[in-house]
Amino acid sequence: MSAAAALSLDDWKSRAAGLSHRGQAFIDGDYVDAQSGETFDCVNPANGQVLTAIAACEAADVDRAVAAARRAFDDGRWSDLPPVVRKKKLLRFAELILQHKEELALLETLDMGKPISDSLAIDIPAAAKCIAWYAETADKTYDEIAPTGPSVLGLITREPLGVVAAVVPWNFPLLMAAWKIGPALATGNTMIVKPAEQSPLTALRIAELATEAGIPDGVFNVVPGFGETAGRALGLHMDVDCVTFTGSIEVAKMFLKYAGESNMKRVSCECGGKTPNIIMSDCPDLDAAAKAAAFGIFFNQGEVCNAGSRLLVEADIKDRVLEKIEQVAQKMQPGEPLDPRTKMGAIVDQTQLDRVLGYIEAGKEGGAELKFGGRRARADSGGYYVEPTVFDNVDSRMKIAQEEIFGPVLSTITFKDADDAVRIGNETIYGLAAAVWTRDLGKAHKTARRLRAGTVWINCFDNDDITVPFGGFKESGFGRDKSLHALEKYVQLKTTWINLDA
């Protein structure tokens, strides 16, 4: 057992009490206040208490960050480095994230309410691994020579886009940022990260680590603020070449509009989902399927874009599956996020708590059967907690079956056969992910082909690796994070046509 894993609740509380928080923006190698002097409160969702004040950046601060990033790009201090040098600096960056794993995990848990055991074992190591993996691509990605005639040399080269703005969500603050930081920096771009206003602490802290790793001033900037101010300014900025965004459909469409209203910047959007988790009566392991279904919706408090929020199950096994899910849920009741024994923490803020509770009420009013859960928990703590919640007898057209709740709320829908499951599975505007549980490999493959989703898991759920792309179909967006495919978002192709007979 590692020293960190052996820490108790009291140990983590003691460390939290002694922790300092970076609240200023990070621009051109320095921490700076917002030019307006305005701040907003960063609140601990576990107890509703203010952690620190955060710089409320607006258009003037975005202008300053973009100018720094543009200078750093144009003078080649990063893009003109030999790829092997960029690789070494990014590898050092990843090492420093791991060296500060406990501090960053604590910041992540205090900021957005996830269990410290998850921050420590999943989020921070995965973020470091992502940056290290992309670092290794820097000197291993080749350009091309076109198959022309002998009198011509056609070169196809990949060049960095320039200034990249990464607008990242609050549910996995550092990991989602790393999915964008890694490939954007590995390909030679400079960037501005705008963390969600609910969870800016880790992004602000790693800016310091980037400098320590040798990443030059101006290459990596962090601008906290609100979507309608800092986010909008990035989207409309004439000197931002790319916006890579993870979040809601509504905001993604705003960035697409901003791009059209400004410089037609490249926009990449990953916009959530309403994942159908399809358990067929010939499921090879009902215990494994039920456990995966429970973790698929209750992990990270249900605040996961590909959460298995729709349980599609054949009628003859439904009761057994729900019984097993309830058994798992009893062990995942909300608890103090700093307690290493906690399996489910706090909802990120009051607004999201109200949203989740509102959907639970909508489910009741819509005629769905509340099987268990459905209440606010730990209200005396001052924090924002919701019980693991399961609805049965849900009609696919109900609000809770169509809209992304982003909380620990499961809708159970029965189906007749594989055709019916596919119809229901595709019956939303989303298409991020899906899962199919069956011992019939042919049926599994055919069903997967017909599901309109960017990822389909067979006899598992949420299995993952940096080597495969992540993104969706339909209104789940068209961006792809992870894998070598993500590199293409941050480069542009140039053709150089050389007449060898001249």
> How helical, in percent, are the residues?
25-40%
Side by side, the strands of the main sheet go 14-17-18-13-12-19-20
Looking at the structure, what is the overall shape?
Answer: globular
What proportion of the residues form beta strands (DSSP E)? Answer: 15-25%
How would you classify the quaternary structure? single chain
Count helical runs: 15
Low-confidence stretches: none
Overall pLDDT confidence: 97
The CATH H-level superfamily of the largest domain is: Aldehyde Dehydrogenase, Chain A, domain 1
* CATH class group of the largest domain: Alpha Beta
Q: In the CATH classification, which architecture of the largest domain applies?
A: 3-Layer(aba) Sandwich
* Fold-level CATH name of the largest domain: Aldehyde Dehydrogenase, Chain A, domain 1
Which key features would you list for this structure?
502 residues, alpha/beta, Aldehyde Dehydrogenase, Chain A, domain 1, Aldehyde Dehydrogenase, Chain A, domain 2, 2 domains, 15 helices
